[in-house]
Specification:
mainly beta, seven-stranded mixed sheet, four-stranded antiparallel sheet, 0% helix, globular
Length: 114
Amino acid sequence: VQLQASGGGLVQPGGSLRLSCAASGGTAGIGLMGWYRQTPGKLKELLADVSSNGVTTYVNSVQGRFTISRDNAKNTVYLQMNNLKPEDTGVYYCNAVLRDRVYWGQGTQVTVSS
């Protein structure tokens, strides 16, 4: 399974971005999909995840600002990010769980700065 993330970039505080992550190659049965963020010197932090039937969870810091969704027909997970803050800056990674294995995308940089 390969995951291709896209949609990162530079945005001003208060702005919005939408990240996408498309899975390909033997994707039948993908379960949980999620988005993580990593900042320098820190481990990846789970931001949000979504089950195959659409149940979502969020970390407190993004609750109400970020929305995770998925399109199972396209094997794609999205992260709509609104009201972005400078502390949201980091490299965003998607992942997917398939048959007890975790697959990771390559990461996309999000920079929130004026």
